[in-house]
Amino acid sequence: MTVANTPRISQLQELPLPTPAFSYFPQTWGWLVLLLVGLAIFATWAFLRWRRWHRDHYRREALLRLSQLQDAITDDKQRLHALRELPELLKRVALSMPNAPEVGNLSGAKWQGFLQSTSPSPLPADFSQQLALLAYAPQTQLMALKPEQLDSVFSTCKQWIEAHHVAA
């Protein structure tokens, strides 16, 4: 064998890739239409979910503040302030509701009626009175409240904040 006839590595060529046995493009237009309809449904669902998440921002903030208030009632120094702030928190939530009626001046039976009408489950009949007690009762009366009473009020507030109806 001569040196001139010996193949060299520089003479090697890369083989072309074989064509796939099937096409990645749908064979019928029906599959493409089905894909586009599915994407449109998903995009609509994602948009509506995002809009609801954005609209319920005030709820998430209120639930976070409610949790902080509930933690604060265990501390004797912060207990009075936390109890006084609870009715204010519910009023702020009601004022933050999208398309909410005028609730700033509601009190007593009208406030109870508003809370009841926007709640999907029944609230205690004296809920607005409990809130008024927290807002206006003397300090000694608030400090004497039993933990069971406070847990009941906080759980009712949490239930209302989480599930109240919003007229959209």
Number of helices: 7
Describe the sheet with the most strands.
none
Global mean pLDDT: 87
- Rg computed from alpha carbons, rounded to a whole number of angstroms: 32 Å
Residue stretches low in confidence (pLDDT < 50, at least 5 long) are none
Structural account:
The protein has a domain at 57-163. It is mainly alpha-helical and 168 residues long. The termini are far apart. The protein is elongated. It has helices at 29-55, 57-72, 76-96, 108-118, 127-136, 139-143, 147-163. α4 crosses α5 (127-136). The protein is built from 7 helices and no strands.
Gist of the model:
By secondary structure, the protein is an all-alpha fold. The chain has helices at about 30-55, 55-70, 75-95, 110-120, 125-135, 140-145, 145-165.
Task: Identify the notable features of this structure and list them briefly.
168 residues; mainly alpha; 7 helices; elongated
Write the layout of secondary structure elements.
Layout: H1 29-55, H2 57-72, H3 76-96, H4 108-118, H5 127-136, H6 139-143, H7 147-163
